[in-house]
Amino acid sequence: MAAYPVRIDDSASQGAPPDPLDHPEFYEGIVTRRIAAHLLDALLILLLIGGLGFALIVLGVLTFGLLWIPLVFLGIAIPLAYDTLQVGGRRAATIGMRAFGLEVRSWTGGHPLRPQALLRAVLFWGMSYYTAAVMMWLLLGVALFNRRRRCLHDYFSGTLVIRCRKLMVLEPRSG
């Protein structure tokens, strides 16, 4: 049984991602949903960094600066952990993705494993925020020019973002 929904007579595509021509409902509005999901995730990550950062600053003052060293790594570790643990977890989506009806799949249709989710997170956060804002638009711009709306980090990590099957009804296609 394939992880992706396929027609019974379409045995050649078992295990392959849903084709945008056969199942456009998986890709409709993906780019705008991904942007909105990312903005929500970025806000949540900023709140996490702010809360933990404030605690480390206070503890750093009390320890005469010894706990300020982890503060440097907080801005790197929190986005990576946030993304990796959620995408590599049971729901295969961050909180922002779930809010906008998205989920991440490996290219073969299953949920991404933690190493694959970590690679995806490193590529996304590394290429977008830690290089330049221009790189973020390059990552997303690639999605405008392919049928499955895959971003650059999706290609490199072997993942695909689709609309969540739980939130949409698939109607059988005549054919």
Major beta-sheet overview: 2 strands, antiparallel
Number of domains: 1
Order of helices and strands: HHHEHHHE
Shape field = elongated
Order of strands, widest sheet: 1-2
Could you explain how this protein is built, in words?
This protein is mainly alpha-helical and 175 residues long. Helices cover 50% and strands 6% of the residues. It has six helices and two strands. It has a two-stranded antiparallel sheet. The two termini are 21 Å apart.
Q: What brief labels describe this structure?
A:
175 residues; mainly alpha; two-stranded antiparallel ribbon; 2 strands
Short précis:
The chain has 175 residues and is mainly alpha-helical. It has 6 helices and 2 strands. The C terminus is likely disordered.
Give the topology.
Layout: H1 30-62, H2 69-87, H3 95-99, E1 102-106, H4 114-128, H5 133-141, H6 152-157, E2 159-163
Antiparallel strand pairs: 1-2
Helix pairs in contact: 1-2, 2-4
